[in-house]
Amino acid sequence: MLSEEILFAINDADDGMLEAVSCRLGYRVQAAPARLGRLSRRAALLAAVIAAFLAFSAVAYAANLWGIREMFNNPNMELPEAAEDLIVSQSESGQGAGIRCQVTESLCDVNQILLTVTVSGDETHILVPQDALPEDPLESIGRDGEGTLADHAARQGKTLLYIGATLALPGPEGPEVHAQGIQTTCISDSEMALLIQAERPAGSSLEGAALCVTTLEEGASVPERLEVPVALTEAAAETELIFAPVDPDAVPGVRVGEATVTISPLGVSATWPETMTNAEDYYKIMKIDFEELTDFEGSGSVLGDDGVYHNQISMGQGTVTDTLTVHYYDWDKQPIGDIIFKKK
After folding, report:
1. Which of 162, 293, 151 lies closest to 217, judged by CA?
2. Three-point CA angle 95, 99, 103, nearest 5°
3. Which residues contact 24 (CB under 8 A, 6 or more apart)?
4. 254-280: burial string, b at 16+ Cβ within 10 Å, e else
């Protein structure tokens, strides 16, 4: 709702200023019939400006409350302060299958993409995350109230609508979905905010990226799909370094190549090619860790556009100098070998 101060400020503006503002906002107010006079035209101008202001405020309000910064931060991890200035406001939207989705913000570097979306439903559905179950308690989706999701829907006389989303990037054989996580916040029965955190394969293009929102009505077996093209911009890297492995075969089952290390406002990203040399030993690898980095995202072999598997991490926190040391662990979380990279 507009505050009194804003309403008074708009009302005090003269007709010329109101018309200029309404035109700038995309409104064209036709001349009022002579019998209605100047006051009718001024009322139309005021209505146009207030309507545009409300529409703009709604988008800004959603982005401020459910944007990348707000949804990403948690007690264990925060968005680096340097990355906040690189968040890009988005305006893409789509409508279909009883929902409307609005892409609000994006942020991406060489290895990671963050994207926030607000999904609004109609009056016949209650929006819930795609992994929810009817028997889940209402509080499991962050809403106050007694009983299960099914109970809540029955009390409202509505149907559950399961919402999912993925980000597809162009690949050599068409759009591809890579490793990604999704965080959801149920704002109300008919509104949900989503944060998509997607890995970007080494060297992949952002041209042609698309958001795919899926909806599955309770009782249905086939989900509906809504695809929205998204324009993504890569944040410029501050530094890109090449590191060569001292011993490419130091870890049983795998041979590694040179690592590309990128330092950006999102943190430290690193990627290096891996070739399996022994299947039995290779599949014993469960995770990796670093001597120099903490709190990184990802880790795991991802097929790149070059047809080669790459191990890649992103958003690592720490300082990389002349050495990058990678610890490999098995499924019992026991160390099985180290790869030491030296800066070239």
Report:
1. 162
2. 65
3. none
4. bbbeebbbbbbbbbbbbbbbbeeeeee
Structure tokens at 222: 């086939």
pTM, two decimal places: 0.67
Tokens 């040179």 belong to residue: 258
Whole-number Å distance between alpha carbons of 307 and 155: 53
Rounded Cα distance between 45 and 41, Å, is 6
Q: Which residue has the higher pLDDT, 178 or 27?
A: 178
Q: Among 120, 179, 193, 123, which residue's Cα sits nearest to residue 309?
A: 179
Distance between CA atoms of 3 and 32, rounded to whole angstroms? 28
Q: Taking each helix axis from N to C terminus, what angle separates 37-66 and 4-12, rounded to the nearest 10 degrees?
A: 140
Report the C-alpha gap between 186 and 135 in whole angstroms: 17
The yes-or-no verdict on residue 56 having pLDDT over 80 is: no
What distance separates the 2 farthest-apart alpha carbons in the chain?
Answer: 89
Which among 225, 215, 218, 120 has a CA at the least distance from the CA of 160?
Answer: 218
Q: Report all structural domains of the chain as residue ranges with CATH numbers, in order of start.
A: 35-229 (2.60.40.1630), 239-343 (2.60.40)
Looking at residue 19, what DSSP letter applies?
A: H
Rounded distance, CA 67 to CA 87, Å?
9
DSSP 257-281: -PEEEEEETTEEEEEEEEEES-HHH
Residue 141 to residue 189: CA distance in whole angstroms: 11
